[in-house]
Design goal:
The protein is mostly helical. 65% of the residues lie in helices and 0% in strands.
Amino acid sequence: MFEARGDSPESKAALSDLCAAYYHPVFAFVRRNAPDEDTARDLTQEFFSRLLARHGIDAVDPAYGRFRSYLLGAVKHFLADMRQHAHRLKRGAGQSHEPIEAGTDTSPGPQIADAKAPDPEREFDRKWALTLLDRALSSLAEEHKKAGRLDHFDALKVWLTGDTENISQADTACRLGMNEGAVKVAIHRLRREFRHAIKTEIAQTLRDKTQVEEEMKHLLHALV
């Protein structure tokens, strides 16, 4: 994350990559605070545009540590600013207000939240966790591709994603020209590599690398 500080081309590229990677967690949070999906997408785009234009990450307190926490706090602040702006327009010279504000008879506002729907912050964390897992899986796939073992990775990754229905280790062993014992060992090794890849992704979002294990627990909790 902290490679994204500053005004160098490398920093700008790093920040842009972070914004692209974590678009979905922010959108999930904004969607629960917007009247419809189109408005949510517009607000999310505006949030990241402002973050990129103002180098917002430069203001992160190094002691704060977690990009996850920073990003959630930043989007909350952004939505509060949008509400205040809408309120000022509403009190002004009859100008139309932002759709995030509560509506009128002719301009419906957000629907009442479904009490059974996921909590916005919990949904943010769940999307964050899924994004981290996807990035770790992509990173691991790239490593195996460079090593010329992408076929093995593609065959075994179902034991990382849980998509093992109707797939047996014996069938996979036959497909790869391995014995079943070797496949069991390969799966164990791949799981270990995946865990390391996840920790690497987590570490990139932290100032204090000693917080990796704590964030790992948070990630697992978010997926429950």
